[in-house]
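Hi support team,

I'm filing this because I wasn't sure whether my run with zinc ion finished correctly. The job status page said complete, but I'd like someone to confirm that the output block is well-formed before I use it downstream. Pasting the exact inputs I used:
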Amino acid sequence: MDTEKIQAAIKTLKSLCSVIYGSRAHVNITAEQGVDFETALACMERQVPKTVNRDSIYRFSGKCPSCGVVCTDDEKYCKICLQALDWESEAEK
Ligand SMILES: [Zn+2]
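And here is everything the job wrote out:
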């Protein structure tokens, strides 16, 4: 899916949350309120690829930028937290 579209949707959903829940948008908005926006937003944010810092010795691997588990560069998504991984843009040091 288009990363820019996802980022736009995240922005829209976040502002919608703050309109509905005000400052409570940062607290736990749970299923009790009807929609679990926190979980929905977390899932959406994981679809936006994050740059992986490749291991300095084992260049084919690196740690997931979200949860820290070691992934290999044939993985487009972290096997643990499902974060989308960007192996192309070399991380700034
Ligand atoms: Zn992860």
